[in-house]
Amino acid sequence: MRLTTAQALVKWLLAQRSETLDGREVPLFPGVFAIFGHGNVLGLGTALEEHRDEIPVWRGHTEQGMALAAVAYAKAAHRRQVCVATSSIGPGALNMVTAAGVAHANRLPVLLLPGDTFTSRAPDPVLQQVEHFGDATTTVNDAFRAVSRYFDRITRPGQLIATLPQVARVLTDPADAGPVTLALPQDVQAESHDFPDSLFTPVTHRPPRPRPDARSVADAAGVLRASRRPLLILGGGVRYSGAAARALDFAERHGIPVTETTAGRTLVPHGHPLYAGPLGITGSSSANALAAEADVVLAMGTRLQDFTTASWTVFSPEVRLVTLNAARFDAVKHGALAVVGDADAGLADLGERLTGWRAGSSWSSRAAAERAEWDGRIDALRGADADVPSYAQVVGVVNGLSEEHDYVMTASGGLPGELIGGWRGSGRVSMDVEYGFSCMGYELSGAWGAAIAHEPGLVTTLLGDGSYLMLNSELFSAAFAGHPFVAVVCDNDGYAVIARLQEGQGAKPYNNFYADCTTSHAFPPRVDFARHAESLGCVVFSASTVDELRAAYARAREAAVAAKRPAVVVVKTQPSAWTEAGAWWEVGVPEHLAGRAAFDAAKPGQIRYLG
Q: Which residue, among 418, 233, 438, 254, has the nearest Cα to 315 in the 3D structure?
């Protein structure tokens, strides 16, 4: 079949299918986010236009934003569908590197297709080409190597035949999932080649469910049987495996309290008697209390990031760590007893080995008792008398008005701690907190991608004024394309959570709140977020009190759906009221600051190795 490189690539994309968690067959590549430039408009752009009725192309307005939307789509689709993002060479390509970092840190698949410079080198140096004096083969796209699970530069059309199966492997593999970058030189995109028809045979990708080695399962069962205070941690891998129901059944059969990580949040119904709450710094004091006493921890589908482990101080130094993970890289961390395999299949095997065994009832009942105390603290924060709403109250309003199939998200600043610690879910997966890379700007761009993927239900994203100012272009993209969601913008006059970290350690306030930033104005300008969002095509509501926020958010939900575009709620929020889970986090504290004494006191309790 005589095709250009770009035509062959698009035709291959269309032939790839995927199986969802509920068994439906869907396109593996449901859409493309694109900004065209001279490096991709004629090659890939022409090929995409030829199939415009078969695969939608959404135009972004920043390359980073559209690629972040693609990442969020993958999470909302539980990694069963993968979006494509394409740009020209140069700054457009480099703008997607941050999004690749988000995908890599969070183990989320995305296919990035940046244009590249001419392989012929005939017109060198071309517009946007960065020349490397000692290496003529290097282009700016080599920056993607550090943040890609798989990287290739297609310098001959026929190379697609060898690389495309590897692209599919990485994007659909539970252990390897992450960003794939194919750099596409613009002259190669336009070159023709005789491709084999078989390359375009439809293929349905069903993520494998590898069973763990029976010996490791037996060893893990032995450790659990000997435990008196076991604890179960559910991470993102449980979500992507579709193993939440089996995990909850496992906990019930054996009386094991359950906690969640950031990526595993909302897997367990909040009112379940074995649910201890979310774990770690941005989690709950209830889960942290049980973690401190647990003698065996079974961590499923999690890489145990420092916010989950409180920089490895949340567990007892005597704890025995057992991990169940599809990725051996994650399973062997910190000397854990590693069970490598699919979460659902591995838990089934482990359950068979534990028939008849249960933890003591006094330990099992601790989960509900500790969580009830935490719930009381959240209720008090939500019900506090305040002229200006706190983050906890904002989360409470959104939580209270959300419906069963809705989806909530955030990414940076103080809101992840409020959302993770304060949200009460029904057990349906309904949250995306991008706290692997904590990328400011993901909140709005990601909401666009999630809104395309998440059906039924409404997406609500929570963000601060800092994130809004950093990346808001995709509000217009979503409004233009007709994808509704609600964005609640919390304005507290600066980077409040970093100011909290700065001043809490004894440093002087500087460069975070606007009052502490350099300016030549006696009265510096302020952003009118409502008018700005309105100018980007959004429906806008403003609120100053909790009651006003409740009314505004309810109206915004209706307006977004009716208008088929984002609705933005702007609310002034308290700059120094936080939900505290009572855990430690390691940051570099200079010796002369007041916070150094607390650092020195906490550091010795940090677990270095559990083997």
A: 233
